Structure formats: structure tokens, C-alpha cells
């Protein structure tokens, strides 16, 4: 999140403003929902985080997302546009990029199962995240766009799991013991946050009728199965 800081600002911040301005000029009746981020909470002051929690981003990515989030609110108030932000906590699926720890674990676990490598290096196994299924979160955004009035919503499971949990479930599904293959890498170590990032999606439940349908274990299994198919086909 600290590489290409200017590009991060352009893509995650200014791009949203350009889209809003294009909508304003072309057709103010167009409805717009941006995928915002729990990274805006950064060094959170309370647990769990809701729409009322103060934002304190600690990275260029979080700051850029906060800029975009603020512009959504400004265009909604100033131009009466239907513009809303979905404050998404970690959302995963088999489409997740390999650079993210969730996909790294499932992909590498399958490679170990297939005999393509022997071990996996990770940072802090005790780090925890509020992980949900991306498909559930896309449904929440669609529901936001169906409302009579635009508003912002936290989209999250309200549960946290550790990187260790993810390893245990992914390797266990493949009949492996993660402790025999996972090594902690001190150079990639991230300290545990003093206040855990975990979302309170109560507003989405009350007003949208939204609840996550895919649990953590099912999500991990889904990703492992997808990587098993992918790597098995590559090695036929």
C-alpha cells in the first residue's frame, strides 16, 4: 500500500471524482455505488466499526479511499445525485489476486498437496481479519442501488478469523497439517492492531435486509477447490 503512492491516489481517489463529474454532466439520474474500504478506519478508535466510527486512515490507500468516500457524500448533498459508498471489509473469492494472503494460502496449499512445493512462508499468523465472500458483498451493493434514497453502508460479517485459522482450514481440507508446511517469516511480520478491524453491518441488516450467506469455512473451501481445479488442469 506504500508503493506508487501517486497512482494509488489517482486510481482510488480522483478516478471516483471523475466518474461522479461525468455522471453530473451526462445524466444526474444515473445511480453510482463505489466500493469503499475498511482501510479508512485505519487506527480505529472503537470496536466494531460502523458508519458512525471516525475515520483514521494509516496508509495512502486508506487516505485515497477516504477522499473518494468524502466526494460521494459531497456530490450526494450538493447535486442530489444517487451516490453511495459500500464500506467493504475484506471480501474474498476464487478471483482474488495471488498477492493477497487469503489466495496465497489456498493456492500454495494446493501446490503443496500436488507436490509442487514443500512449504509456505507467511508473516504474523495471529493477525485477524473480518473475511467475507465477495459475492455476498456485491449483492449488498446491488441492494444499496435499489433503495429510494442513497446512503452509505458498512458491509461485513462481524466476525474475525486469524491467518492461522485460514491455514488450518485450507490445509485441513486437503488432508494436510499446516504446521508441517507453514513457516513464519519475520521480514513479513505485521503486529496485531490494538483495535481490531471488524465491521458492524447492523444498518445493512435493518435497512437492506442483507446478511452474508457464505460462512468462513465455506469460503475457504470454495477457494481451495477452485485452486485445486486450476492447478490440476495446468499439470495434466
* Anisotropy-based shape: elongated
What can be said about the biggest beta sheet? 3 strands, parallel
> Termini distance?
37 Å
Instruction: Give the % helix.
Output: 40-55%
Mean pLDDT: 94
- How many individual helices? 7
Kindly list the characteristics that best describe this protein.
44% helix; single chain; 7 helices; 236 residues; 3-stranded parallel beta sheet; alpha/beta
Short description:
This protein has 236 residues and is α/β, with parallel strands linked by helices. Helices cover 44% and strands 12% of the residues.
Question: Could you describe the 3D structure shown?
Answer:
This protein has helices at residues 5-26, 60-79, 101-113, 134-145, 163-173, 202-208, 216-234; strands at 32-37, 83-88, 91-92, 120-122, 128-129, 132-133, 153-155, 161-162, 182-184. The protein is of the alpha/beta class. Strand 1 (32-37), helix 2 (60-79) and strand 2 form a beta-alpha-beta unit.
Layout of helices and strands, plus pairs?
Layout (H helix, E strand, L loop, with lengths): L4 H22 L5 E6 L22 H20 L3 E6 L2 E2 L8 H13 L6 E3 L5 E2 L2 E2 H12 L7 E3 L5 E2 H11 L8 E3 L17 H7 L7 H19 L2
Parallel strand pairs: 1-2, 2-7, 3-6, 4-9
Antiparallel strand pairs: 5-8
Amino acid at each position: 500500500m506504500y508503493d506508487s503512492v501517486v497512482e494509488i491516489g489517482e486510481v482510488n481517489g480522483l478516478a471516483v471524482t471523475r466518474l461522479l463529474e461525468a455522471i453530473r454532466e451526462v445524466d444526474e439520474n444515473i445511480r453510482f455505488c463505489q466500493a469503499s474500504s475498511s482501510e479508512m478506519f485505519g487506527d480505529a478508535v472503537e470496536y466494531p466499526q460502523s458508519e458512525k466510527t471516525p475515520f483514521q486512515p494509516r496508509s495512502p490507500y486508506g487516505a485515497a479511499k477516504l477522499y473518494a468516500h468524502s466526494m460521494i457524500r459531497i456530490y450526494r448533498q450538493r447535486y442530489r445525485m444517487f451516490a453511495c459508498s459500500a464500506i467493504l471489509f475484506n471480501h474474498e473469492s476464487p478471483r482474488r489476486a495471488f498477492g493477497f494472503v487469503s489466495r496465497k494460502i489456498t493456492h500454495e496449499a494446493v501446490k503443496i498437496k500436488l507436490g509442487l512445493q514443500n512449504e509456505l512462508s507467511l508473516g504474523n499468523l495471529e493477525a485477524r481479519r473480518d473475511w467475507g465472500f465477495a459475492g455476498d458483498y456485491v449483492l449488498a451493493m446491488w441492494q444499496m442501488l435499489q433503495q429510494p434514497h442513497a446512503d452509505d453502508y458498512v458491509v461485513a460479517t462481524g466476525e474475525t478469523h486469524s491467518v492461522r485459522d485460514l491455514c488450518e482450514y485450507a490445509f485441513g481440507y486437503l488432508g494436510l497439517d499446516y504446521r508441517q508446511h507453514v513457516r513464519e517469516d519475520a521480514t513479513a511480520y505485521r503486529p496485531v492492531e490494538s483495535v481490531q478491524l471488524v465491521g458492524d453491518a447492523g444498518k445493512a441488516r435493518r435497512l437492506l435486509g442483507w446478511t452474508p450467506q457464505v460462512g468462513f469455512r465455506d469460503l475457504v473451501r470454495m477457494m481451495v477447490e477452485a485452486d485445486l481445479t486450476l492447478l490440476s488442469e495446468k499439470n495434466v
